[in-house]
Amino acid sequence: MSKKNKLRLSPESLSLPCVGIETHAHLDLRDYDRDLDLVLDRALACGVARIGNVFLGPDAYLENAGRFAGQERVFFILGVHPHDAKTCDANTLPTMQAAFARDGRIKALGEIGLDFFRDHSPRDVQRRIFRDQLALAKGLSAPVVIHSRDAHQEAVRILLDQGFKDRPVLWHCFGGDREFAKQLLDLGWFLSVPGTVTYSKNLGLQEAVAHVPLERMVLETDCPFLTPEPYRGRRNEPAYMVFTAARVAEIKHIPVEEVWRRCADTAKGFFRL
User: Fold this and answer.
1) Contacts 24+ apart (CB under 8 A), 203-210
2) C-alpha angle 166-197-108 in degrees, rounded to nearest 5
């Protein structure tokens, strides 16, 4: 049998209880236009009880939140991604504030932060919009979900300057090493583990995960991106989060169901679900 046609373990085969929480999905993207309901059904069948959908800005939220009408197990995260910082105008933050006020499904402000890898927005604009959104989150008493790429220490400095030590901060798609994980934990923050932990060469992340307590860890897919093994190369979806949980369990030498339940409990507390 060729590698291309090799049978893959189905996510349903892990038989996990329906308590899991997927903390970071982009199901409003066009990748799911044709089969969103099927994707949600598969997630439920694989033990994913709740899904956090991230809207990348108020326009995305206003245009697409209705796609999840009647899907109360989907909660929302709303924020301006650093790539889009240059698109912000005087109405952006007031529109977001109004959305938080009227929609109880919005549980956190994110993903916000800095991206100095692609630099789709000027860095000074990214910094300003990041600070502005942190101020909004403080005023709303809302948790924040952080995007940081090639800008970790500057993102940390801005968070500290804005008074976020020991506040509810979740480092989305954590990909750092043990030392950086310890720095974030010492600041009272939380780490979100993506499917990249299943990649065999990602030894630094695996070592970090070994030392992060489950009380400070949540799971995510960041779908449609970062698909875990054994489905790497395909479109990602919430059902595949079971493979991330299984790899974390292997790293920590504990049952996968323990990872599944305890990371879900951490997510419930962070997002006030």
Assistant:
1) 204/176, 204/177, 204/178, 205/174, 205/175, 205/176, 205/177, 206/247, 206/251, 207/177, 207/178, 208/174, 208/176, 208/177, 208/178, 208/180, 208/181, 209/181, 209/248, 209/251, 209/252, 210/178, 210/251, 210/252
2) 35
Domain that holds residue 206: 16-271
Q: What is the CATH number of the domain that holds 72?
A: 3.20.20.140
What is the number of structural domains in the chain? 1
Number of other residues whose CB lies within 10 A of the CB of residue 203:
10
Q: From CA 26, how far away is CA 31, in angstroms rounded?
A: 9
Q: Judge whether 6 lies within some domain.
A: no
How many other C-beta atoms lie within 10 A of the C-beta of residue 192?
24
Whether the predicted model's global pTM rises above the 0.85 cut: yes
103-131 residue pLDDT tens: 999 999 999 999 998 989 999 999 999 99
* Residue at 239 is within a domain: yes
Residue 44 placed within a domain: yes
Q: Which of 160, 165, 270, 273 is nearest to 217 (CA)?
A: 270
Is the previous residue joined to 111 through a cis bond, with omega within 30 degrees of 0? yes
DSSP annotation string for 65-117: GGGGTT-TTEEEEEE--GGGGGG--TTHHHHHHHHHHH-TTEEEEEEEEEETT
Task: Please report which confidence band the pLDDT of residue 28 belongs to, taking 50, 70 and 90 as the band edges.
Answer: very high
Nearest Cα residue to 71 out of 110, 38, 95: 38
4 lies in a domain?
no
Query: % helix / strand / coil in the chain, to the nearest 5?
Result: 45, 20, 35
DSSP β-ladder status, 74-79 and 106-115: parallel
Phi and psi angles of residue 170, each rounded to the nearest 5 degrees, phi first: -115, 120
